Amino acid sequence: MKQYRIFSVLFISLFLFLNIGCAQKSGTAKDNARFVKDSEGVITDSSTGLQWFSGPDRIMSWNEAKAWVSSLDVDKGNWKMPTMVELKGIATGKYGKYQIDPIFELDSCCVWSGETKESSFVWVFHFPYGPTTWNINADATLNARTLAVRSRK
Fold first, then answer.
1. Which of 3, 53, 88, 92 is most buried per CB count within 10 Å?
2. Nearest Cα to 130, choosing from 106, 97, 153, 105?
3. What sign has the CA pseudo-torsion 99, 104, 110, 113?
């Protein structure tokens, strides 16, 4: 019986040691968080392997969003505007009115996609309704923000 107690204490101690060590290494306050933001503001999605960066905290046209993403050099650059599929991948269906993790600090319903249709129409992803999308002139300013995305380095 004494050996069983010693084994149990050792097993529990090892379990706690490993879990505390892993939580400290993760760099996030949440255990098993899907999205983790580093000190430069780069958000890594553990589910898809994509990295995200939130655009300026203001409404902008698609052309302004494209110019901002093209000039983004955070963490050695290589950023692009997201596709509709990539945007759909971060729509969670929870977290309040915008259905996106608060780590993205999104204060607008919509995010521009880099996809175009014909010569003057572009796609915008509408987060409150999930994958609902529509197209609009690239010079128009909607209640839309931008996110930059890239494959994990």
1. 53
2. 97
3. negative
Q: Whole-model pTM above 0.70?
A: yes
Residue type, 85: V
- Give yes or no for a contact between 62 and 143, defined as CB atoms under 8 angstroms apart: no
Q: For residues 17 and 19, what is the distance between their CA atoms, to the nearest angstrom?
A: 6
- The per-residue pLDDT for range 17-42, each reduced to its tens digit, is 333 333 333 334 454 589 999 999 99
Q: What b-and-e string marks burial along 127-151, b requiring 16 or more CB atoms within 10 Å of the CB?
A: beeeeebeebebeeebebbbbbbbe
144-145, strands of its sheet edge to edge:
133-137, 121-126, 110-117, 144-145
